[in-house]
Amino acid sequence: MNARAPATLVLGILGGIASGKSQVARLLAGPEGVVIDADALAHAVLGSDEVAGLVRARFGPGVLDAGGRPDREALGRLVFSDPEARKALEDFTHPRVRAMIRARLEQARAQGVPRVVLDVPLLLEHDEQAGLAALCDVLVFVDTDEAERARRAAATRGWAPGELARREAAQLPLSTKKARAHHLVPNRGTLADLEREVHAVLRRIGAERTSDEL
Q1: How far is CA 202 from the centre of its chain?
Q2: Residue 119 pairs with which residues in a beta bridge?
Q3: Beta strand extents in the chain (DSSP E only)
Q4: Share of the chain above pLDDT 70, in %
Q5: Ordered domains of the chain (ranges, CATH)
């Protein structure tokens, strides 16, 4: 009798803004795995005719680009200073993004993908409604110093000093996310250092899964 194929391992990424979560997600997935990138899905949802129309009607032309589509930077500046605006945008986008995440996860499971990584920035924030964290077998926290994260946000996103802290104030404290994680990946060195840390975490997860099956 053929041995049953191992179930897909689902990992969720936690950490602060600009901590390197997407890089860690790709390393955890590896060449045989899949990363489900919520930001990319949200970008696609915002670009859809349906949601673009909702955004235009709710927020007006000030948050649209030259092509009449939602401008993510303009929307970001608005919603992180206006809780009501933020909730309205989330109501437009989050249910659609969650449905896409679940569909892609089910597809990966059906295809026998060994590892799926959920790269979802607000994985824990809306867990009661979304239930995405409950889909994860393992939660991994990417640990990066705040000063380094602020430097990266300024360099790659053009954020002014204090912007990172302002946006994170609207999220769960990092201490809470860190406490929920099963494993921690320090990200304070080179890419080679990060690769070693990720591979060490994967070995520990593999050993834990083997132990659970005994």
Answers
A1: 19
A2: 37
A3: 9-15, 34-37, 115-119, 138-143, 183-186
A4: 95
A5: 1-33+114-214 (3.40.50.300), 39-112 (3.40.50.300)
